[in-house]
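<context>
A single protein, sequence plus fold
<sample>
Here is the protein in question:
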Amino acid sequence: MCAPNLLQFVPNYYIANNYLKTNFYLKDVLCYRKVEEKITGTMPSNLKFDDSEGKAKDWSLLRHCCFISCFTMLSTNDFKDGILDLGFAEKLKKGNVDNAGNRVERPFITISSENTQKLLIDLSNQVNDYLKDNNLKGSGLFSRAVRYLDEDDYKKEELYEENNITNINGVFINNDTKMISRSSRNDSLLKNILQFLYLFKPIYFKDQHEYRLGLTLDDPIDVNELFIPIHDLRKYVKVHPFQDINNLQLEDI
């Protein structure tokens, strides 16, 4: 898959204008696990939070081990007559909420497909330096599109990975979490488990068009957020006011 065009809403203009200036911000994936109040019988009120985040039925990803930054992928199919489709723009606004779930008007940043590829190379090197300098063992930087499965396929995959978690060797932390030791025998199975836990979602989240940058650590660290020091990478980023989402063009990214 070619590197995608990326969009991310950010809390304010200070953060937007300094995005990737001195640090790369990542958040514990389990911070996004939250039950949404429903405005209809079937759809969540917004698409920011997911109660199934980092879970496979009765099992949970270990807290403080997976940190991510979430983006929306933009393709040419999302544009109509050269302008971002209004229906898709409204879906993006729907997910533009604060931690309490309230709709907010925030600036956003974009990274073109060409710049995404360059950014990933620079960022990967700097993340590796951070892990080495802090004696942390982990995956290094990963970049993946989230995969969305319909209800039946999601439940089938969830059950399959639950069985893998049950059978793999590890130490129980509590009733729903198992610390799994890295080994050549476990690694391929563990990789499949982790990919499901943080890269698969039910189909009703499909409108997110989500793309994740992140890293996983072999052992948890006692923080919900990472601020990884980096050299200035703002050359890859464009800043937009909230109102631009209504008339965004491909050449604006």
User: Anything to note?
Assistant: The two ends are 19 Å apart (CA to CA). The first helix runs from residue 13 to 17.
